[in-house]
Amino acid sequence: MKVSFFSQVAYRELPDDFEQHHLSCVTTPYSLTTPSTIYDSYRDFMDELVHAARCGFDGVAVTEHGQSSYDMMPNPSLIAATLAYLTEVEGLPVAIYPMGRSLGKSREPVRVAEEMAVVDVMSGGRLIAGFPVGLSYDASLNNAVAPIESRERFKEHLALVLRAWDDSAPFAWNGTYSQYPSVNIWPRPLQQPRPPVYLTGTGNPVTMRHSLEADFGFNYFGWFGLKMTGRQVFDRFWDLADQVGVPRNPFRMSFMQIIGVADTDDEARRLYAKHAEYFFRRALGAIPGEMLSLPGATDINGVRAMLRDSSDDGLFAQMKTVTFDQLVEAGCVTVGSPATVREELASYCTEYGIGNLLAMLNFGSLPRELAMNNIQLFADEVLPHLRGIWDESEHEHHWWPERLGGRPRQPMAATPAARS
Residue 344: is its pLDDT beyond 50? Predict the structure, then answer.
C-alpha cells in the first residue's frame, strides 16, 4: 500500500458570507484577498508538503486548477520541481506526484513533456505523472477550448507527451490540435521505459477504460461520498478491468480522501467540523454543476454514469449548505481518533481494492498549525498500519517509481497512434 500526502493551495480567508454573495469560487473577485494572506497560503502549502515528505509519506501530490480560489495552482510543475530538488538534497525517498496537468486544455503539450522530464531528472527518477482531461470550466471558460474538443485534445496530447518521452529520435507531429515540425525534447525522463502514468477522474467510464487499455493507473477523486457512490464506481472500474482483460491489481487504483485525526473522536469533530464544511460550501460546492460539466464535454456514457452516481441523495445540490454530519454519513470525510481513521480507511481499501491512498490532510480553512499536527499524527498513528494491507497479495506495483520499490514494465503503445 502506498500513501501520499495530497494538498491544494487553498485561499482560507474568504468572507463568512461568501456563499451568499458570490456565485462561485472560480469566479471569485481577487479584490477579496490581501497580499499577506496570499503569501501565507503559498508558504503554508509548501511547508506542509515538505513536512509530509519528512514524516515518511510515500509521495507528495499536487493538482492543477486555474483561476480559482480553492486551488491557486495554474502549473503544478513549479511546485514539483521545487520539491524534487529539496527532497533529493535531503535524501527523502518520496515520490513527486504532479497529478493534474490538464492536457484537455493545453496548447503547449510538448512543454508539459519537457517540464515533467525536468522534474524526473531533478528528483533522480521519482516522478509520477498524473493527467486529467480537465474540468469543464477551466478548459472551456478559462481557456476557450470548445467542450466537445477537450477529451479528444487530451487523448492526442497525451499520446504526444508519451512519444516525446519514448522516442529517441526527433520526429514530426501532425495532429488535429497540435502540429510540430520537430519534437526533440531535452531532457528526457531518467526513468526507463518511462515514469509511471495515472489518469485522474471522478468515475467517467471512458476515462477508466482508457487507463486500463493503456495500462495506466487511475486516480479516483470521490468528492461526493464514498459511502454513497463508492460501490458503483469501484465496481464499474473492476468490471471494466475484466472486460479489457487485465488483472484486478489494487495498485492500479488510487483514491483521494479528506482526513482529520485527533486524540479522540470528539476532539476530532471539534477541531475539523467547521473546516470540512468550509471546504465543501466554499470550495468544491461553490462551483455550479453546469460549470463542472458543460454540454459536450462528456459523452453519453459519461453522462449516464454521472446521473447514476449522484442519484442517491442529491448531495451535490446541497453542497452550499451541507453539514459536517452529512459529510461523515456520506463518506466525504474520514475524521476521528487514530483507531477510528485506521479502521475506516483500511475497510475502504480492502473492500474496494485500493492500493494507493491520497490523504488530504489540509482542507478548507484549516489553519497552518492544525494542518501540520494533522499530518504528523496521521504519519505517526495511521500510516504505519495501512502500509502492509496488500503485502500478502500476489500483485506487484507497476505504477510506482522503480527507485522507490515499483516494478515497471514495458509500456503499451500510446493511443491514438502518433502521426508523423
Answer: yes
